[in-house]
Amino acid sequence: MIRTQIYLPEDTHARLMQIAQEEKTTFSKLVRSGADLVVKKRVKNNPQKRAVTFLANLPSKYKTKLTGKQLVDLISRGRDE
Amino acid sequence: MNDILPKRGGLGYPLVLDSSVVISCFGQGDEYSEMSRRFFKEVASKLEALLPTIVFVEVAVNLYLQKVPNVRRALGVISGFKQIALDSTFAWNCAKFAPSNRILRTSDFIIAVSARVNEAVLITWDKRLLDNVVCEAMTPSEFLKKTTKASTA
Fold it and tell me: Number of folded domains in chain B?
């Protein structure tokens, strides 16, 4: 993780401190989850980023029993037929 | 080399994705699948990536053949790449480049011309496409190496 410094409006800071106390979590965790939401929203609204993220972190349920090389050979054979 | 369009390509230009790169992400346990996923993680998100419609069809057919679960959902996400349509303008471009083609099968040729007319680098694992004379082509590993060198230079 990278340490960084940000300015927050006083009321936002106070509200986050209150939520952290109520939910027995930390102020930092709340700020991080907010930042994650911003990133997720950007990806969701950009179809290419969504596709890239999907392929980069392909969930294991989508993975075949074949290796990547075997799948590449399938494509190549399909073009030969 | 046919000089109807300048051969450009390289960093800063769009990428055209071949079926071999997309489909290998669905494999496991070898360099092809690992490198393809790494390519998408590290490079493809920073550049415009284009998908010829024929690639989308090849990926769909092969995912169904491999009985991948929820293929429709996977294809829905993959359709987020901007697609290069096989329309009449594109067909004429293919006809113009046809005399320069000696080794490519028709589907490979369509993919190579897609890269050429978009002044893009074709990313592929297919040896015949890597040796083509129509467009610039690289494997995901080669492209990763090139981008790493460029960013450290």
Answer: 1
In angstroms, the CA B88 to CA A69 distance is: 34
Q: Using a CB–CB cutoff of 8 Å, tell me whether A56 touches chain B.
A: yes
Q: CA A36 to CA A1: how far, in whole Å?
A: 13
Question: Is B59 contained in some domain?
Answer: yes
Domain carrying residue B61: 15-152
CATH of the domain at B78: 3.40.50.1010
A76 touches chain B (CB under 8 A): yes
Q: Mean per-residue pLDDT for B62-86?
A: 93
Among A58, A75, A80, beta carbon nearest to B58: A75
Block residue for tokens 């106390």: A21
Nearest in space to A53 (alpha carbons), one of A65, A63, A42: A42
pLDDT, one tens digit per residue, over B86-95 is 999 999 989 9
Residues forming a β-bridge with B82 = B50
- Residue listed under structure tokens 């190496």: B145
**Residue B8 belongs to some domain of the structure:** no
Pairwise CB contact (< 8 Å): B33 & A68: yes
Residue B123 and residue B25 in contact, taking contact as beta carbons nearer than 8 Å: no
Query: Inter-chain contact A62–B125, Cβ cutoff 8 Å?
Result: no
Residue B100 lies in a domain: yes
Q: Looking at the predicted structure, is the pLDDT value of residue A41 above 90?
A: no
ipTM entry? 0.83
Kindly state whether A55 is in contact with chain B, defined as any CB-CB distance less than 8 angstroms.
yes
Residue B31 inside a domain? The answer is yes
